[in-house]
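Suppose you are handed a protein chain with no further information: no name, no annotation, nothing but its sequence. What can you learn? This example shows the usual starting point.
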Amino acid sequence: MTRPAASAPNVRAAGEAVRALRGGADTIAAIATATGRGAIALVRVSGPDADAVARRIVDPWPHAPRTATLAAIRDPESGAVVDEALVTRFEAGRSFSGEPTVEISTHGGIVTPALVLAACIAAGARQALPGEFTRRAVLSGRLTLAQAEAIGDVIDATSRAAQRAALHAVDGALATRVLALRDAVLDVEALIAYDIDFPEEDEGPVARGRVLAAAERALAAIDELRATEARGAVVRDGALVVLAGPPNAGKSSLFNALLGESRALVTPVPGTTRDAIEAVLDTAEWPLRLVDTAGLREAGEEIERMGIEVSARYLAGARVVLVCGETPDELALADERIAGLSAARRILVLTKVDRAPAPVADGAIPVSAVTGDGLTVLLARIEAVIGETLGDAAPDDMPLVTRARHAQALARAREEMAAFVAAWSDGSLPTPVAAVHLRAAALALEELVGAVDVEDVLDRVFRTFCVGK
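A reasonable first move is to predict its three-dimensional structure. Written in structure tokens, the prediction is:
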């Protein structure tokens, strides 16, 4: 039986995927801006033949690199003008991808950039795969893997705090910190490698106490970075702030007032909110996941009872609870009940103060959803409470761990370093066996940033101990 031949498009697609995975020796092109109506679009061409491809469609050719030149973009087959655009070329090593690159700033919209991209492909480029420009930047050494991920985080950021943290990582803060941790682990590995590989040297092995101290310092540094995971989770997902209290206590009105729009149904009928309603409020310091919950009371019907159960689950996971009440007595009762449902920090909020002079309520913040009085004070208090437990949302001296992959890699590195410290402290393992934990810790950190150099530790041995002098 004759096996049917694979279709040409499938063979071509498979070949393109393989070339992309190998780092791409070919030239790629793609529209680098969002599709839709707009003033300008950017078409990027990158690869060893980027100049040759672009020369076929750009007239005149910009001879000076990194200088925008107004040029006609022509169809390479018919010669017809597709658009007038600004063209900038970048040499290898001076572009985002690290490869020769040509960027064509076309008129915006849907048709024009698509026609320019089609001209690039007709001139010899291929359509880039998702993320391929950034992948090439990593392979060329322009970015670490952590920096590449941070670029995606900048694009996906939904709050100012998330955007600040991502920019900090794009700048190399996380990669620099992780590589410093890796260096600390390799220093320990170099100390014991001298003992393993050169046991007959006159100086004798490195003192065990010196090795242990270096390992403990490396372990403490890993723990210091891992301690940012809680802040990173809040920056990524928002701090859970739950509005709770009895029915008709003004929770939904306050929820809407804080957001500046009507998201929750507000009526004078007790028990109107039957389920939790979520929305994210982006404040200057932290993103807040505000949750309006059902009023806490003895429910009379099944649906309302289920809503109150949902409220209790949110309260259990809250970082801050806004305890709402119309009067000091109502507030005190609500606070007592909520204290048994949540270990979160509680802020007492005296609502509806526009209806009458604010009564006395120790520690409570008087607010009005109608006039806006007290809302600024309340938001400042929420941010202060979060800051008291988490610290600064964007510290200058320490990047935040915001991705699960990074957290997992750090956890593996920490586990291996702790195992080495324990084994080295009690001498329970031979040195070569204990060294396996150090190698595993270093590999976990290398995986995080995408840097692997098996010769690095050997270089350190020779440099540090002058072996072969």
